[in-house]
Amino acid sequence: MLPNSILIISGTNRPGSNALKIAGIVERLYAQAGAATELLSLAEMPKEVFEGAAYLTKPGGMVEIQNRVLEAKGLHIITPEYNGSFPGVLKYFIDMLKFPESFERKPVAFVGEAAGIWGGLRSVEQLQAIFAYRNAHIFPERVFIPGVNQALDAAGNLNADIEQRLKSQVEGFVKFINCLL
Q1: Is the pLDDT assigned to residue 101 strictly greater than 90?
Q2: 119: phi > 0 → left, psi -120 to 50 → alpha, else beta; which?
Q3: Distance CA 142, CA 145 (A)
Q4: How many CB atoms lie under 10 A from the CB of residue 108?
Q5: Are 121 and 145 in contact (CB under 8 A)?
Q6: Is the alpha carbon torsion for 61, 90, 69, 99 positive or negative?
Q7: Mean pLDDT, rounded, of the chain
Q8: Rounded to whole angstroms, how far apart are CA atoms 123 and 178?
Q9: Nearest Cα to Cα of residue 134 among 108, 99, 83
Q10: For the purposes of burial, counting CB atoms within 10 Å of the CB of 84, is it exposed (0-12), middle (13-18) or buried (19 or more)?
């Protein structure tokens, strides 16, 4: 983990996901804002973490991921909406992290994306409840991307309106983090 960097989390392990494409755009916007970031796709979670024994003894790969979360100065979570909620793998990821220190007073920003008209609103609101329970500092400017399959072009670029909203969120989140540190 880079010192003082923001960890961008693509909240699914689905190959070629829209969340990962959007996370890449968010990463670029942070670079333009002069902020250090790292990108974590949940596809990076080691297979061993899905064995029941992982609750007692974390696999080495998960310990490394856990340390990236602990060392991050903020988390920017990009979540799709699956079946009216966020992906199960994202909940499992949260459950595998150290409690309570992983999110305690950690600044967190959210982006929701979905094929439907609500743009991941349900998934973000449910995640906000979990992170609030864990005493995270939740950045109030959320971005929702409805009709994500139409919002992203074939090259993986977002339409200008949504990209501008993401840029505003990124710039605001950097200021938010700096106020809290």
Answers
A1: yes
A2: left
A3: 10
A4: 23
A5: no
A6: negative
A7: 95
A8: 27
A9: 99
A10: exposed
